[in-house]
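Aim 2 progress update. The chain analyzed this quarter is reproduced below.
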Amino acid sequence: MKNIIILFFFLATTFSSFAQDYSDSQNMDIEYNRDADYPGGVNKFIADLWHQMEYTQEAVDALIDGEIMVSFDVKPDSTISGVSIISGLGYGIDEEFTRILLSMKFKPALVEGTPVKMNVMLNVPIRVGPKSKLKTK
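Predicted structure tokens:
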């Protein structure tokens, strides 16, 4: 009987020491009523982005065809901050992409009807061809 009590006590302390700490507010799951997104959806976002992008002569000559993986925050006021290019393409494309992205407005995420900041990660295709808009100096 004594061995069972000691075993129970040992198991209880082991489980409680590895339990998740829910007192930390940053450790809580957030249930969004609506995720942050671009007005018109992802396809409209890509079309608007492509329309505004200007490329260096080097990028046009290299006929860049790839994807940019980006992480950014959509703030409650619909603006973008914290842009981080996770996987870029070079040739000045990453900088131009960031410049355009920072000028765009997204619909903020909602939690119980209140706009909140939300991190968004996207893979954005980039296709540079001979007729792409050249960057003016």
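Residues 2-17 form the longest helix (16 residues). Residues 33-127 form a domain with the TolA/TonB C-terminal domain fold (CATH 3.30.2420). These observations will guide the mutagenesis experiments scheduled for the next reporting period.
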